[in-house]
């Protein structure tokens, strides 16, 4: 999952708030990304 401000409706508190967060396959399989 990427945390960014690339979409016009997204805002971050600081530039260093951009993150790439790995998700466990169990979380994805449980439907988190829907």
Mean pLDDT: 84
Structural class, please? little secondary structure
* pLDDT < 50 stretches: none
For the termini, the CA-CA separation is 12 Å
Report the strand count.
Answer: 2
Shape: elongated
Rg from Cα: 12 Å
Strand fraction: 5-15%
User: How many helices does DSSP assign?
Assistant: 1
Largest sheet: 2 strands, antiparallel
Helix content: 10-25%
Biggest sheet strand order reads 1-2
Q: H/E series, N to C?
A: EEH
Protein name: Phage integrase
Task: Give structural notes.
- The protein has 34 residues and is mostly loops.
- It contains one helix and two strands.
- The chain has one helix at residues 25-29; strands at residues 2-3, 19-20.
- A two-stranded antiparallel sheet has the order 1-2.
- The longest helix is centred in the C-terminal third of the chain and has 5 residues, at 25-29.
- This is Phage integrase.
- It comes from Shewanella piezotolerans (strain WP3 / JCM 13877).
């Amino acid at each position: 999952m990427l945390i960014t401000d690339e979409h016009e409706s997204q805002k971050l508190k600081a530039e260093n708030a951009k993150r790439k967060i790995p998700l466990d396959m169990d979380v994805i399989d449980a439907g988190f990304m829907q």
